[in-house]
From TrEMBL:
The keyword Ribosomal protein does not apply. Residues 43-125 form the Lipocalin/cytosolic fatty-acid binding domain. It holds the Pfam family Lipocalin_2. InterPro entries: Calycin (IPR012674), Lipocln_cytosolic_FA-bd_dom (IPR000566). One of its GO terms (biological process) is response to reactive oxygen species. This is Lipocalin/cytosolic fatty-acid binding domain-containing protein. One of its GO terms (cellular component) is cytoplasm.
Length: 128
C-alpha cells in the first residue's frame, strides 16, 4: 500500500471529522473572555419545582441518544429530587423507531441557599 495515500486518507478523515463536529455543534468556539452570567436572586425552590422540558442542549454523555427529554424537580425541603427522563430512539431509513424510555434519579441542593439559584445536581453515577 502506498504510504502517501494512507497519509492523505488519514488527513482527509481527520478534517472530515472536525468539519462534522463543527456543524453538529459539538465544539463551540468564541474569542475573548466569557461573559459574567449571574443567577437568579431570591430563588424560590418551591416555584422551581415541577416539570421542565428540554428545548436545546450541548452534547452530554448522560443524555446521549435520548430525545424528548424532561426533568422533574420535586421539593424535598432544603433539597430537590431530580428525575431526568427521555426516549431512546434510533433512525433507520429516515424513520425513528422508539427503543425504550429511560430515566435517572438524583438530588439537587443549592450551592449557597442565601444568595442564588445555583444548583449542585448529583445522579447515581456522579455529579453534573
Amino acid at each position: 500500500m502506498d504510504v502517501g495515500y494512507l497519509h492523505r486518507f488519514t488527513v482527509s478523515l481527520c478534517v472530515s471529522w472536525i468539519l462534522v463536529a463543527l456543524c453538529e455543534g459539538i465544539f463551540v468556539f468564541k474569542t475573548g473572555r466569557c461573559p459574567h452570567v449571574g443567577s437568579q436572586p431570591n430563588f424560590d425552590i418551591a416555584r422551581f419545582s415541577g416539570i421542565w422540558y428540554e428545548y436545546k442542549r450541548f452534547p452530554s454523555l448522560l443524555e446521549a441518544g435520548l430525545d424528548c427529554t424532561t426533568t422533574v424537580y420535586g421539593d424535598a425541603g432544603d433539597r430537590l429530587t431530580v428525575v431526568k427522563e427521555g426516549v431512546r430512539r434510533i433512525k433507520i431509513f429516515g424513520q425513528y423507531i422508539t427503543m425504550n424510555r429511560e430515566s435517572i434519579e438524583g438530588l439537587a441542593s443549592l450551592v449557597n441557599s442565601s444568595t442564588s439559584a445555583e444548583l449542585n445536581v448529583s445522579y447515581a453515577g456522579g455529579t453534573s
